[in-house]
Amino acid sequence: DGTCDMCLKGEEVYCRNRLSFGEEVDGFFAEYARVAGNSLVKVPDWVSDELAVLTPCVLAMLYRGFRRINLNMGETVLVTGASGGVGVHAVQLARAMGARVIAVTRSEEKAKVLGKFADDVIVGSGFSEEVKRRFNGGVDVVVEAVGTPTISESIRSLRAGGRLLLIGNVNPDETYQLRLGYTILKDIMILGNAAANRGDVASVFGIVKARPIEPVVAAKYPLREFAEALRMLESGSRIGKVLLVP
Ligand SMILES: [Zn+2]
C-alpha cells in the first residue's frame, strides 16, 4: 500500500496491507486494471512488452532471491526445471550476474535449446553424482524450481556451505522429509523466495541493459483463449512462459 513500515523500507513484498491480483483481487486476465500509482514501476523505452511482463514475477523475483542468498560472481549455480518459464530465466539471470550456470532438464530435446543459455546442461533426474564429479564436489547454489521430485538431488548437489533457493512451484500441500542432521552438518542454507520489490524490478532493468536476457515465450494467446493458454502451460511441452495478449 506504500504507507506501512515494510513499504517505507522498500520491502513491499512484506506489505502489512498487501493485495495481490489473482489472490485477494480479481481481474488478473483483463485488458485494464485499476492499480494504485505507488504500486507502479516506470518501464524504460528500450524494454519490450515481453521483457516487461516477465520482469516482476520472474526476473525480479529471481534477482531478489539471488540477492538474499548472496550470489557472488564466479559462483556455480545449478537450476532444476531449467526449461520451465521460471527456470529458463533463472539460467539467464544467474549468468548475467556473473555465475557459471548448469541447467538440469529431463528432456534431450529441451537440452539442445538450453545449451544456448547455460554453460552446461545435464539431462535426467539423477544428477547429483555427475554434478559432484564434474564441479569440484558440489555447486555453490541450487535454484530449486521443481519441488519434491528433484529436491533430494538438489541438496546432494550442493557443496558444504551451499545455498538452496526454493522458488517457483507453489503447492501449499506439498511436503518433503528433510534430513535435519545432514542439513546441519553440511552447513546448508535453504531460502524460500516468492516475489519482488519495486527496487528489484529497477535493478533487473539495469542488469538486462548491460547484459541482455532473452524473454523466452513458449506461446502467445489472445485473451479470449485463456483456457487454451492454461492447457498449453499444463502440458509443459515447450520452453518458456505462456503469454496472454489483450
Ligand atoms: Zn505496505
Would you kindly provide a brief summary of this structure?
With 246 residues, the chain is an alpha/beta fold.
- Total number of beta strands: 8
Query: What is the averaged pLDDT score?
Result: 93
Main CATH class of the largest domain:
Alpha Beta
Order of helices and strands: HHEHEHEHEHEHEHEHE
Rg, rounded, reads 18 Å
Describe the oligomeric state of these chains in a short phrase: single chain
By CATH, the topology of the largest domain is Rossmann fold
Q: Structural class, judged by helices and strands?
A: alpha/beta
Order of strands, main sheet, comes to 3-2-1-4-5-6
Which CATH architecture of the largest domain would you pick? 3-Layer(aba) Sandwich
What would CATH call the homologous superfamily of the largest domain? NAD(P)-binding Rossmann-like Domain
Instruction: Tell me what portion of residues adopts beta-strand conformation.
Output: 15-25%
**Total helix count?**
9
Shape: globular
Biggest sheet architecture: 6 strands, parallel
Number of individual domains: 2
What are the distinct ligands in this entry? zinc ion
Gap between N and C termini: 27 Å
Q: Which range best describes the helical content: under 10%, 10-25%, 25-40%, 40-55%, 55-70% or over 70%?
A: 25-40%
Uncertain ranges: none
Structure description:
There is one protein chain. This protein is an alpha/beta fold. The protein has helices at residues 5-8, 49-68, 87-96, 108-114, 128-134, 148-157, 180-185, 198-210, 226-235, and strands spanning 76-79, 100-105, 120-123, 139-144, 158-166, 189-192, 217-222, 241-245. Strand 2, helix 4 and strand 3 (120-123) form a beta-alpha-beta unit. Helix 2 crosses helix 3 (87-96), helix 2 (49-68) packs across helix 8 (198-210) and helix 5 (128-134) runs parallel beside helix 6 (148-157). The model has no long low-confidence stretch (mean pLDDT 93). The chain has two domains: 5-53 and 197-245, Quinone Oxidoreductase, Chain A, domain 1; 71-192, NAD(P)-binding Rossmann-like Domain (Rossmann fold). The protein binds zinc ion. Residues 1, 4, 6-7, 15-17 line the site of zinc ion.
